[in-house]
């Protein structure tokens, strides 16, 4: 079973990468981009076949390693 | 003082740290590779600068999971003294031995330059040779040194006197211009509640000999040496 972990800078935490991307888009002439936040996606291929257990395991991995919950939030999706 | 420097794949400032420690103790610190065990009779463990494990995932995140860090955590729990500089500070944060996070520099630029820091907490094993309010110069070189913590944590750090160093101008004034990486409240270095763990982004070990261009960073190492000779 595959799980995707989306890791994003927490709301209220400065995201300088998102800001830089926003400026670059502006420079390319893309108007109307109000805000950009940049995070990362981590794909896990899990042996677990039970969706609830797979999700719980991925969330545990996110809390312990994949995200630093002081500065990042995460969300797990099963694929 | 019996000191050990932990060396991870990608650590690159361990020799500078060795020079600084040797200068104040007269003997070489142990250099421990990440797969080795921590000896039991250490006074000080140092996590040096660099880019451990290629900064994969987050700076310090991989090193925090390496086998030797279990020993370092146990050492901390027993009241051991730990200094983390630059990547070492990032590793202490990822290990949870110090609070907060270190974000990408607000400018997005890798900053390789001198900065000035003001000593906010004197009288600790890392700062006893300075007066409170003393200002000293230090090289810094990092891409992710933007200290972040929520307001409650920052208030606690300040209230309990656990902010060790703040970025200031040469005169010791806290300014935005002096805060090149954008750290919350200009915080450059912090201490654990028992004052035995200190993490900071700049590199005092790179200014400990006139041949390096100055000795501004030497008091930190003299403080440590003194802590363990009088103890």
From TrEMBL, chain A:
Pathway named in the protein's UniProt entry: Purine metabolism; IMP biosynthesis via de novo pathway; 5-amino-1-(5-phospho-D-ribosyl)imidazole from N(2)-formyl-N(1)-(5-phospho-D-ribosyl)glycinamide: step 1/2
**Record's function text:** Part of the phosphoribosylformylglycinamidine synthase complex involved in the purines biosynthetic pathway. Catalyzes the ATP-dependent conversion of formylglycinamide ribonucleotide (FGAR) and glutamine to yield formylglycinamidine ribonucleotide (FGAM) and glutamate. The FGAM synthase complex is composed of three subunits. PurQ produces an ammonia molecule by converting glutamine to glutamate. PurL transfers the ammonia molecule to FGAR to form FGAM in an ATP-dependent manner.
Known PANTHER family for this protein? PHOSPHORIBOSYLFORMYLGLYCINAMIDINE SYNTHASE SUBUNIT PURS
- Which Enzyme Commission numbers does its entry carry? 6.3.5.3
Q: Which InterPro entries match?
A: PurS, PurS-like_sf
Gene coding for it: purS
* Name this protein carries in UniProt: Phosphoribosylformylglycinamidine synthase subunit PurS
Task: State the taxonomy lineage.
Answer: Bacteria, Pseudomonadati, Pseudomonadota, Alphaproteobacteria, Acetobacterales
Record bears the keyword Glycosyltransferase: no
Automatic annotation (TrEMBL), chain B:
Function (record text): Part of the phosphoribosylformylglycinamidine synthase complex involved in the purines biosynthetic pathway. Catalyzes the ATP-dependent conversion of formylglycinamide ribonucleotide (FGAR) and glutamine to yield formylglycinamidine ribonucleotide (FGAM) and glutamate. The FGAM synthase complex is composed of three subunits. PurQ produces an ammonia molecule by converting glutamine to glutamate. PurL transfers the ammonia molecule to FGAR to form FGAM in an ATP-dependent manner.
Location relative to the cell: Cytoplasm
Q: How does it assemble?
A: Part of the FGAM synthase complex composed of 1 PurL, 1 PurQ and 2 PurS subunits.
Entry annotated with the keyword Cytoplasm: yes
EC number(s): the record gives 6.3.5.3, 3.5.1.2
Query: Reaction(s) catalyzed by this protein?
Result: L-glutamine + H2O = L-glutamate + NH4(+); N(2)-formyl-N(1)-(5-phospho-beta-D-ribosyl)glycinamide + L-glutamine + ATP + H2O = 2-formamido-N(1)-(5-O-phospho-beta-D-ribosyl)acetamidine + L-glutamate + ADP + phosphate + H(+)
Q: What is the lineage of its organism?
A: Bacteria, Pseudomonadati, Pseudomonadota, Alphaproteobacteria, Acetobacterales
Q: What is this protein called?
A: Phosphoribosylformylglycinamidine synthase subunit PurQ
What pathway does the UniProt record associate with this protein? Purine metabolism; IMP biosynthesis via de novo pathway; 5-amino-1-(5-phospho-D-ribosyl)imidazole from N(2)-formyl-N(1)-(5-phospho-D-ribosyl)glycinamide: step 1/2
Gene designation: purQ
């Amino acid at each position: 079973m595959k799980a995707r972990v989306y890791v994003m800078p927490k709301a209220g935490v400065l995201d300088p990468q998102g800001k830089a991307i926003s400026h670059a888009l502006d420079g390319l002439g893309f108007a109307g981009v109000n805000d950009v936040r940049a995070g990362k996606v981590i794909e896990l291929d899990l042996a677990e076949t039970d969706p609830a257990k797979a999700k719980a395991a991925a969330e545990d991995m996110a809390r312990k390693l994949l995200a630093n919950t002081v500065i990042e939030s995460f969300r797990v999706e099963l694929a | 003082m019996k000191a050990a420097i932990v060396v991870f794949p990608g650590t690159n400032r361990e020799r500078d740290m060795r020079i600084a420690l040797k200068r104040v103790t007269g003997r070489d610190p142990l250099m421990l590779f990440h797969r080795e065990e921590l000896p039991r009779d250490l006074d000080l463990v140092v996590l040096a600068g660099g880019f451990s494990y290629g900064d994969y995932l987050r700076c310090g995140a991989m090193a925090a999971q390496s086998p030797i860090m279990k020993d370092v955590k146990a050492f901390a729990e027993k009241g051991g003294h730990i200094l983390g500089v630059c990547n070492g500070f990032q590793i202490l944060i990822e290990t949870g031995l110090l609070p907060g996070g270190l974000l990408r520099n607000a400018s997005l630029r890798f900053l390789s330059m001198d900065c000035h820091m003001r000593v906010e907490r004197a009288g600790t094993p890392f700062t006893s040779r300075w007066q409170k309010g003393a200002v000293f110069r230090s090289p810094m070189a990092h891409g992710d040194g933007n200290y972040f913590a929520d307001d409650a944590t920052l208030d606690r750090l300040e209230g309990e006197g656990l902010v060790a160093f703040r970025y200031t101008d040469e005169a010791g004034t806290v300014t935005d211009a002096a805060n090149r990486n954008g750290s919350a409240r200009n915080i450059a270095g912090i201490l654990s509640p028992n004052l035995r763990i200190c993490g900071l982004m700049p590199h005092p070990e790179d200014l400990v000999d006139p041949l390096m261009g100055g000795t501004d960073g030497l008091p930190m190492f003299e403080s440590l040496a003194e802590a363990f000779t009088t103890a």
